[in-house]
Design a protein that fits this description.
112 residues; alpha+beta; Arc Repressor Mutant, subunit A
């Protein structure tokens, strides 16, 4: 079975994360779960990769983090959530355009 090379997908981890955050704030475990589900289990992001991306994107002001209080019953645990910024939305749009161009070029070299 062919697996996705981490070298190939590395440049698009941010895009996948930002796509999920475009729908609303979320936290690490939920984001990794969504990536696995949306990719139909063809890609599972490593925890270290995910949190490195959070750190890098927060530094670049593409996302911001906040801690959510436990649920109303007080039994929930505090979690760090992430939300996309306006700068992050622009970066996401740029990465989508870049992907379209990349895909167009690579497709010219794929023999069917």
């Amino acid at each position: 079975m062919v697996e996705i090379s981490s070298d190939v997908i590395r440049g698009y981890n941010d895009t996948m994360i930002l796509c999920i955050l475009m729908k609303g704030p979320s936290y690490g475990y939920e984001i990794s779960k969504q990536i696995k589900t949306i990719s139909e289990e063809k890609y599972v992001i490593k925890e270290t990769t995910l949190y490195s991306a959070f750190t890098r994107m927060e530094k670049n002001e593409f996302i911001e983090s906040f801690v959510a209080d436990p649920g109303p019953d007080g039994n929930g645990k505090k979690r760090t959530y992430y939300r996309i910024t306006e700068k992050g939305k622009e970066y996401y749009r740029e990465k989508c355009e870049e992907w379209a161009l990349t895909k167009d070029v690579i497709e010219k070299f794929i023999e069917h």
